[in-house]
Amino acid sequence: MSLSERRRPEGQDVVKKMADLLRAGAAMLSERCPICGLPLFRLKSGEVVCPVHGRVYIVKTESEATRITVQGVLENLERVAAEEIAKALEKRDQGLDGLVKWLDVLERTERILSIMQGSGKTREGEKD
Ligand SMILES: [Zn+2]
Which residues does residue 39 pair with via DSSP β-bridges, in sequence order? Predict the structure, then answer.
């Protein structure tokens, strides 16, 4: 219990900051800071801030958070696949099995990523 308390700044200080934000016309949101769990505030400028951490990246829904995680994993996988393909090309004596496997991984990864990044997107450079 004391562990999580230690990470938090002085309670009084936070309350004061929240009061300052409200006084400045900021609106308290139902979303919470992913780091400290305090309610976030939307400033008049439109920025969403945590009273403790300042400006934060706000993830709107849980599914969006999952999406971002999945996308990150896939992008890593894509990189690994590309590296493995490059390695396989260097050591040609290993045969094509490994190469084909990684190409398969790369193809699937890129397909999923392109679906996630919006299938309705028009490709640039394709006009003419
Ligand atoms: Zn915070």
Answer: 32
